[in-house]
Amino acid sequence: MKPVRTRFAPSPTGFLHIGGARTALFSWAYARRHGGTFVLRIEDTDVARSTPEAVQAIIDGMNWLELTHDEGPFYQMQRMERYKEVVQQMLAAGTAYYCYTTREELDALRAEQEAKKEKPRYDGRWRPEAGKTLPTPPAGVPPVIRFKNPKDGVVAWDDQVKGRIEFANTELDDLIIARADGTPTYNFCVCVDDWDMDITHVIRGDDHVNNTPRQINILKALGAEVPTYAHLSMILGDDGAKLSKRHGAVSVMQYDDEGFLPEAVINYLARLGWSHGDDEVFSRQQFVEWFDLDHITASAAQFNTEKLLWLNQHYMKALPPADLAAKVQARLAARGVDTAAGPNLEKAVVLYVDRCNTLNVLADAVEIFYAHVTPNPELLAQHLSDEARPALAEFAAGIASVAWEAPAIGALIKETVTKHGLKMPKLAMPLRVILTGQAQTPAVDAVIALIGRDKVATALAPYL
Ligand code: GLU
Fold it and tell me: Fewest beta carbons less than 10 Å away: which of 125, 157, 191, 214?
């Protein structure tokens, strides 16, 4: 068995999106699972659309997800000489040939074929064959170079996701591998790279299924070993339509911005089209141990934002409180909120994490403890009734001497409402609104304990 070598080969024309990240994850995991090598290759030959910023965005996304490559990044634009060298080898071997057909001739050919209701394809007029006399090359026409695709038979592979796929060679015309200006074309570069980089397993999106028979034929012509292919089905959005910008956060880094943990995104992506029984929650390490190509589903995977949020909350809760607090603190600091000026952030995040599913939502929730709270007058009017005021005053007096911990504070609230013949919310709700500005909070005694005796006393004073 050859050592496993996989690659992720993005075209740097935008950020690392969810589909690309999943392809990268599966390629990475397969290499890790088999103690192999994961190669990063940047397919930047579309110079009009490729940008250095996009390369950086892809690398940033991979770093955030900790999908570390072992080799590369290799840039196709830096490999031009190599591609040209291989083109020359193919010309010499007779597996490629010059074609002088002009644009006008190709247009005429196409029109003719369309009129006859035939599939438009190159007719092989410059293709050398035994016993065939080729036309004389016209002066002043720079030739393209075409691959001499086999004429008969089928090209087939056992796709690890989709099963056996076959194409008749008659369906494939002689692909241009180098343009008239000498630049090599996309499918050809991929072949040379997969060959030179000794790639054993090509795991990529199924938008490349139609390229695969051409690539296999070229690889065979080169005498290269054909890798194993696994074509991943597309990802649909929550609404069942193809995942696109319309669905919001499609860039991986946007998930970081929105307060998702990379562990959650990894776990989520792992389940997008792959399964291990009914397991939904597993670590990166566990995923690597389990990952195989046999359990990738051939049908499209559907994105489920609710599930991602659920996983994210799971991973937030699983973090040691100090780590969770540090992450929230960084987000608050970015908003200019100084957490030194308020209660212990670690306690605050622990108190709120059950009701927050992203770091941002958690930061939003605890921010009130470090800012001046001005309760909304309407909310206050709604919750602070006249009958509650004496109870509020008595509670405020009581806090001076109560033991400062949630159970004792809770007992004080209870005593006070009982004494005033009120139901619990009559006091708890105005306390919430005055102290946090919000009507919904975790247990009010815990919130009060967190805020601190002096601050609570100061905040209640204007309402007594
Ligand atoms: N560069 C291609 C893309 O971004 C991937 C090619 C491949 O994996 O073979 O879709």
Answer: 125
